[in-house]
Amino acid sequence: MRPPVLNPLFAAITSLPGVGPKLAVLYGRLLGREEPRVIDLLLHMPSGTIDRRARPKLNEVQPGQIVTVSVTVEDHRPAPPNRPRAPYRVVTSDETGLTLTLTFFHARADYLEKLLPVGEKRYVSGTAEFYDGMLQMVHPDRVVDEKGFADLPLVEPVYPLTEGLNLGNLRKAMDGALGRIPELPEWQDEAWVSRERLPPFAGALRSLHKPQDPRDIVPESLAWTRLAYDELLAGQLALAVMRAHMRRQAGRGTSSEGLLRAKVMKALPYTLTHSQQQAVNDIVNDLALPQRMLRLVQGDVGSGKTVVALIAAATVIEAGRQAALMAPTEILARQHYATIKPLAEAAGIHVAILTGRERGGERKAILDRLALGEIDIVVGTHALFQDEVLFHDLALAIVDEQHRFGVHQRLALTQKGESVDVLVLTATPIPRTLVLTFFGDMDISELREKPPGRLPIDTRTIALDRVGDVEDAIGRAISEGKRAYWVCPLVEESEKIDLAAAEARYEDLRRRFGSKVDLVHGKMKAAEKDAAMARFASGQSQLLIATTVIEVGVDVPEATIMVIEHAERFGLAQLHQLRGRVGRGSGKSTCLLLYKGPLGETAKARLAILRESEDGFRIAEEDLRLRGEGDLLGTRQSGLPGFSVARLETHGKYLGAARDDAKLILERDPQLQSERGAALRHLLYLFGKDEAIKLVRAG
Ligand code: ADP
Ligand code: MG
User: Fold this and answer.
1) Which ligand 1 atom sits nearest the alpha carbon of residue 580?
2) Gap from CA of 447 to ligand 2 centroid (Å)
């Protein structure tokens, strides 16, 4: 149960002033949550400040500077009747004798006469400029009288926004949210907090959203550091709880002679790379130990993780036990199944697939055979979590692309057997510094080499206005029998809009190339999607238009061309993943990144990295570096994926400390029952890690 004191923070965002159901949708988009709550808004960090503290006399004003000046209103000069589009000007002056002209476009005279009565003193804040040698200010941000000035925030935070949402509304809602923060217990080590002079949680939020000084809201500030550390600790604590929970049940120690592994390897049309072999050795050693395995196999797209997974499975199967391989999407599950099936069968291993699509009698038969132990390895989607899925003796859970699954889902699968060993496969080349954040302290095997014989992919960037040339080139490639993917842009989170773009492109190309063109997207029925994929895989169609559903795992070695439209809208890692769909066979492959100019410096650098490198690890590191620079440029939108507050470049250095803290806390108070333990439960809720609390209770 959530501590009731937190309730005001978990109220819907619509409970805040000025936020109705329509704006709630925009806040949802901004905050990455369907039903945003007060706490989500509070953890939305400012991206900068407007500093109105400069209070020069008019003779001291620097052009371009944001200033707050105290002036007397001299004269109103409305637009002349014959030029209604001309601006409305208000002339003001101060005791230096200089004048400042306030310029308003499309202004209403009655409004301005009230706001700036002739002869009165007003405080005016905005950006001052010289125009025709005269000092002027176009649309001042603020015009207030003496009384209003007392309340004027001289340092105002600025936030990342989303289209349709304005700063005024966000600030008002934030004001409301700040008023909801209850009295909270301190969950950090009190001695440390006071030594580091860190403010309490509530104080940190106030200082970030109501800064007195622009330095209050840089990520290095004490307030931001406090919140970042809170977030890191919550994450590490949740991981530690989960790990303790898993380790509590000792492993069983599956040793084997390796006969079945050898059979699988014999069935391979190639030999394992050195790093594949190393990963297999790591896994076999882990499995033999009487502790549970928690291992991450990290390898770029195409590095050959599936076969490593199968060989791992063969080890437990030889001992008469079962394995499950879970993938995040239907397409990917089928792909794994297709890869594994012939190899497994050659080695006498029984494989089945179980997704939402196996229904009725077929499903029942699979479930029965699983429960009886007649199926050795089952490949599937999250359908594998369901209660009806029972194993005879599940020994190994293999989870592909795990970061898409929640911690509790991973757990759900491991609870379907006795001390299940866990192998996680990830194609996202997360830099080592980040592995900890996502996976806690798992053991890691890296597949750094690619299987031999891969040709480099020729990657080019092309401006989108040359899309006609690209279509011509695709036409030539099709007539030569080649196969191409065409990925359509990610416009925004809304899948509907992505879809419209993809469908428009499909119509366009279909008109040109007829039945050679197919379309797949996330909203299609599974059977349709498979049919389209199958046509492309068999060569019946040669151009596959897709939204990002093809991002993970699709393996059509004959495809040699990848076109990515609006490449500037994709993340680097995602572009790398998409590009990894080609260059898998023996043909020379090309990747065309179509971008809409003009590109900013960072966007240019990002695309350049892709042209230069195919090393996923290097790309991931460069990506982080560029995001860091983006921050310096003031577009601080990056953040660690999955984190609201912590910024890797600034707070990554605290990760190790947070992990040690979490470990120590659990050693002393495994059930979080002490006073501090109770306070830490608040922390876990605030950062959405309450799954961990259930595990603490479950013991
Ligand atoms: P990943 O899942 O890591 O992206 P896959 O397991 O799908 O990669 O493997 C990509 C392709 O490489 C598959 O077609 C697979 O058969 C092939 N492959 C895997 N290991 C090797 C190897 N050692 N030598 C040659 N080809 C390999
Ligand atoms: Mg794979």
Assistant:
1) 4
2) 12
How far, in Å, from the CA of 270 to the mean position of ligand 1?
A: 9
Q: Best mutation site among 307, 334, 402, 425 for ligand 1, i.e. most ligand atoms within 8 A of its Cβ?
A: 307
Nearest to 554 by CA among 340, 383, 338, 331: 331
Torsion, CA 124, CA 125, CA 130, CA 131, rounded to 10: -70
Tell me the C-alpha distance between 101 and 83, whole Å. 19
d(CA 512, CA 343): 40
Tell me how far the alpha carbon of residue 550 lies from the centroid of ligand 2, in angstroms. 12
Alpha carbon distances (Å) from 509 to 43, 517, 542: 44, 7, 12
Residue 489 CB neighbours (<10 A): 22
User: Helix or strand or coil: residue 36?
Assistant: coil
> Which residue has a Cα nearest atom 18 of ligand 1?
304
pLDDT tens digits, 73-86? 999 999 888 887 88
- Helix (H) / strand (E) element for 518: namely strand 517-520
Averaged pLDDT, 511-516: 93
* Residue nearest ligand 1's atom 15 by CA: 304
| Structure-token pair, residue 682 | 């608040």
CA distance 625 to 647: 12
Closest protein CA for atom 5 of ligand 1? 304
Q: How far is the CA of 319 from the centre of ligand 2 (A)?
A: 26
Nearest CA to ligand 1 atom 19: 304
In sequence order, the 6+-apart residues with CB closer than 8 A to the CB of 587 are 455, 482, 558, 560
**pLDDT confidence of 568, banded at 50, 70, 90?**
confident
pLDDT per residue over 643-652, tens digit each? Answer: 789 887 788 7
C-alpha to C-alpha distance for 316 and 284, rounded to whole angstroms: 9
Pairing of strands 121-131, 134-138: antiparallel
What are the structural domains, with CATH classification, of the chain?
Answer: 1-49+168-204 (no CATH), 53-152 (2.40.50.140), 266-447 (3.40.50.300), 458-613 (3.40.50.300)
- C-beta 276 within 6 A of ligand 1: yes
Rounded Cα distance, 24 and 19, in Å: 6
Nearest CA to ligand 1 atom 25: 451
Query: What residues have their beta carbon closer than 5 A to ion ligand 2?
Result: 306, 553
Query: Is residue 638 scored above 70 in pLDDT?
Result: no
Instruction: Give nearest CA residue, ligand 1 atom 23.
Output: 272
Ligand 1 neighbourhood includes 299 CB (under 6 angstroms): yes
Least confident span in 211-220, 232-241, 250-259 = 250-259
Tens digits of residue pLDDT in 402-417 = 555 555 556 667 777 8
DSSP letters spanning 39-102: HHHHT----EEEE------GGGPPTT-EEEEEEEEEEEEPPPTT-TTSPEEEEEE-TTS-EEEE
Q: Which of 302, 479, 309 is nearest to 402 (CA)?
A: 309
Mean pLDDT for 142-158 is 91
Task: Name which residue sits closest to atom 9 of ligand 1, judged by CA.
Answer: 304
pLDDT of 654 over the 80 cut = yes
Determine the distance separating the centroid of ligand 2 and the alpha carbon of 586, expressed in angstroms: 18
Tell how far the Cα of 160 is from the centroid of ligand 1, in angstroms. 41
Range of lowest pLDDT (378-387, 509-518, 632-641): 632-641
SS3 572: helix
Secondary structure of residue 603 in the 3-state scheme: helix
Q: Is the CB of 301 under 6 A from ligand 1?
A: yes
How many angstroms does the Cα of residue 407 sit away from the middle of ligand 2?
21
Q: Is 338 in the pocket of ligand 1 (CB under 6 A)?
A: no
CA distance 569 to 231: 28
Neighbours of 696 (CB within 10 A): 23
